TrEMBL record:
Gene3D superfamilies: 3.30.70.270, EAL domain. This is EAL domain-containing protein. Pfam families: EAL, GGDEF. Residues 174-441 form the EAL domain. It comes from the Bacteria. It comes from Nocardioides kribbensis.
Length: 452
C-alpha cells in the first residue's frame, strides 16, 4: 500500500482534502447561484458498502489499501475543478465543478459508481467495493455546505436502503455465479475450489487452542471470493444450508491436517496439543433445519473426527431462551459438538441467556471491543465484567480481531483467555499451517506479543 504524503489540509491516509480544506473551498464556490450565475454545483456523499467486512476479514492494513485506491478512483471520476474529500472512515464527499445546464449531478454519481466496479487488488486478492451515493444540488437542495451535506446524506441512506441494494445487487452482477456455486457444492471428491482458510487462536502460554474456519472460493474468473461475496449467492440459490454443511465437512477434513501440524511441541496445558478445535460459522436458520444435527453426526463419522474438535460459531442467542434452540444445543452437546458465541459486545450484550443453553464453550469478543480496551475505559470495564461472568459459567473468552500490539497486555490483564487476529496470523490455507506454527514457536509464541 502506498500512502499519500500528508500536507496541510489533506487526509493523512489518502491525500484527499480534509474537512477544513473542504469547508474553505465550499465557501468560495457555493455562491454562484445566489449571485445570478446560472451554473451550479453538486455535493455527492459516497459511503462504501460492507467495508467493515474487509477490515474484519483481511485486516486494517488491507482496509487502508482499499481506501487509498478508492480515493484515487474518485479523483479520476470527478471532473477537473472538483474537490474530493474524505469525511472519515469509509465516507467520502465530492464537491463538483460547475455543472452543465440541466445536469443535476446524476452523471457524476454514475461516473463514481462506474469507477468502483473493477475489483480492488489487495495482496493478490480482488475485492469488489460497492458504494451508496447521495446527491444534493446547489440551489434546489440548499445554498451552503451544511445544507447540501444534510440532503446528500439522506439521499445516500435512501440509496443504501433501496430494494435489491447493495448486497443482492453485487451478488447478481455475474449471473453465472449461482450455477457455478451449485457446481462447486456438488463436487464430492474434497478437492475443488470451495475451501477454507483457518485463523489460529492462541493461549498465553503459546498453545494453539483452535482455528476458525473461514470460507474461500477460488473462482476461475473472479479470483478469490470471500464470504461476503459467496453468502448472498448461496441465499439467492437456496443453498445456504448446503454451503454450511460443505464448510463443516471441509473443516473436519482439514482438522486432520491441523492436528498433524500441532503435534510436535505445543505445551500440554488446557486442550491437548494434538487436538485443536476448528470452528465453523453457522447461521441460526441452518441450525433449525430438520435433520441438521443428524447431518453433522454423519459428517463427523465420515471424517473419523472426534466430536469435541468441532465448534459451531453463531451470533448471540435471543435474550429469552427458545425451547427449540435449547433442544438443538442440547442435541449438539450430547453429540459432543460445542458452540462458540461470536461478536459478543457488538450490541446489547448479556450473558444471562447463555446460562439456559447447553454446550456453549467459548465467547468471542467483538473486534471493535477488542480494539477499544487500551483507550476506552468503558470498553475495558465491559470486557472485565464479561470475563468474570463468562468464567463463572465455565466459558473461555477469546479476544477476536487482535491487530494492535498495544491491546495485548491489556487483554491479558483483563483476564481474556485466548487471542485471535492478524497480529497472531492471517487466515491460512491448511497446507500453510505447519510452516506458520514453526515460525510461531521459533518467534516465542504469545510471549513475543507481550514484548517479553
Amino acid at each position: 500500500m502506498t500512502r499519500r504524503v500528508g500536507r496541510a489540509g489533506t487526509d493523512a491516509l489518502t491525500g484527499l482534502a480534509d474537512r477544513g480544506r473542504l469547508e474553505r473551498r465550499a465557501r468560495r464556490l457555493l455562491t454562484g447561484e445566489r449571485h445570478g450565475d446560472p451554473t451550479r454545483r453538486a455535493v455527492l456523499i459516497v459511503d462504501l458498502d460492507h467495508f467493515k467486512h474487509v477490515n474484519d476479514t483481511l485486516g486494517h492494513a488491507a482496509g487502508d489499501a482499499v481506501l487509498v485506491e478508492v480515493a484515487a478512483r474518485l479523483e479520476r471520476a470527478a471532473r477537473p475543478g472538483a474537490l474530493v474529500a474524505r469525511l472519515g472512515g469509509d465516507e467520502f464527499l465530492v464537491l463538483s465543478a460547475a455543472l452543465p445546464p440541466g445536469d443535476d449531478g446524476s452523471s457524476l454519481a454514475g461516473a463514481v459508481r462506474r469507477s468502483l466496479v473493477p475489483p480492488v487488488r489487495v495482496d493478490g486478492v480482488g475485492l469488489r467495493v460497492g458504494a451508496s451515493v447521495g446527491v444534493a444540488l446547489e440551489g434546489r437542495d440548499g445554498h451552503d455546505l451544511v445544507e447540501l451535506m444534510r440532503v446528500a446524506d439522506r439521499a445516500m441512506y435512501a440509496d443504501k436502503a433501496r430494494p435489491g441494494a447493495p448486497a443482492r445487487e453485487e451478488a447478481a452482477a455475474d449471473p453465472t455465479l449461482g450455477p457455478d456455486l451449485r457446481a462447486a457444492l456438488e463436487r464430492r471428491d474434497g478437492s475443488g475450489a470451495l475451501g477454507l482458510h483457518h485463523q489460529p487462536q492462541v493461549g498465553w502460554d503459546g498453545t494453539v487452542n483452535g482455528y476458525e474456519a473461514l470460507l474461500r472460493w477460488s473462482h476461475p474468473r473472479r479470483g478469490l471470493l470471500l464470504p461476503r461475496d459467496v453468502l448472498p449467492v448461496a441465499r439467492a440459490e437456496g443453498a445456504l444450508t448446503a454451503l454450511t454443511l460443505h464448510a463443516v465437512a471441509r473443516a473436519l477434513t482439514d482438522h486432520a491436517v491441523l492436528t498433524a501440524a500441532a503435534r510436535p511441541a505445543d505445551p500440554p496445558t488446557g486442550l491437548a496439543p494434538d487436538a485443536p478445535t476448528v470452528s465453523v460459522n453457522v447461521a441460526a436458520r441452518d441450525l433449525l433445519v430438520d435433520g441438521f444435527v443428524d447431518d453433522v453426526a454423519s459428517l463427523l463419522a465420515a471424517a473419523s473426527a472426534p466430536p469435541g474438535c468441532l465448534l459451531l460459531e453463531i451470533a448471540e442467542p435471543a435474550p429469552h431462551p427458545r425451547p427449540a434452540v435449547q433442544a438443538l444445543f442440547a442435541a449438539l452437546d450430547a453429540l459432543g459438538v460445542g458452540v462458540s458465541i461470536h461478536e459478543f459486545g457488538a450490541g446489547a450484550a448479556s450473558l444471562a441467556p447463555l446460562a439456559g443453553y447447553a454446550g456453549v464453550r467459548e465467547l468471542k469478543l467483538d473486534p471493535a471491543l477488542t480494539r477499544a480496551v487500551a483507550t476506552d475505559p468503558a470498553a475495558a470495564r465491559l470486557v472485565a465484567a464479561t470475563v468474570g461472568a463468562a468464567h463463572a459459567l465455565d466459558l473461555a473468552v477469546v479476544a477476536e480481531g487482535v491487530e494492535d500490539p498495544g491491546v495485548v497486555p491489556r487483554l491479558r490483564d483483563l483476564g481474556c483467555d485466548r487471542l485471535q487476529g492478524f497480529l497472531v496470523a492471517a487466515p491460512l490455507p491448511p497446507g500453510e499451517v505447519a510452516a506458520w506454527l514453526d515460525r510461531w514457536r521459533a518467534g516465542g509464541g504469545a510471549q513475543s506479543l507481550l514484548g517479553a
